[in-house]
Amino acid sequence: MTEAANKPTSPPVSPIAAGLRARCPQCGQGKLFRGFLTVAEKCERCGLSLGFADAGDGAAWFVMLTAGAIAVAAALFVEVNWQPSYWVHAMVAVAFAIILPLVLLRPVKGVLLGQQYRTMAREGRVEA
Q1: What is the chain's mean pLDDT, rounded?
Q2: How far is CA 61 from the centre of its chain?
Q3: How far is CA 93 from its chain centroid?
Q4: How large is the greatest C-alpha to C-alpha distance in the chain, in angstroms?
Q5: Among 18, 22, 2, 11, which residue's Cα sits nearest to residue 103?
Q6: By the 8 A CB rule, do 25 and 15 touch?
Q7: What is the DSSP string of 36-53?
Q8: CB 7 within 8 Å of CB 110
Q9: Are the CB atoms for 52 and 116 separated by under 8 Å?
Q10: Whole-prediction pTM
Q11: Is 6 exposed, middle or buried, given 0-12, 13-18 or 19+ CB atoms closer than 10 A?
């Protein structure tokens, strides 16, 4: 596919709605991922080449920042209010520090890829 084929269509699909549902940023119907976090080569519905899609570590960074803050706040909240035993703290830590990032990572990556498509963001280049 050429770069002209990857231009946004009308009416535009919300990058947030498409990303949260892990759908194609152009048509909003095809699957964005072929695995848990592996981006598909192209949209099965509209044929959009998803070769431009590179969120890098952006999604992981946002998820770690958010989930880490929530995990620490939850641990402090539990400690201040109930002073439970260590196994309760371990359960809170597992829930917020392991499960929450796994739940958030795919939708956040989808939103970032949708925004990347919408703004036509590409790798930085130095023009000669």
Answers
A1: 89
A2: 10
A3: 22
A4: 63
A5: 22
A6: yes
A7: SSPBPSB-TTT--BGGG-
A8: no
A9: yes
A10: 0.84
A11: middle
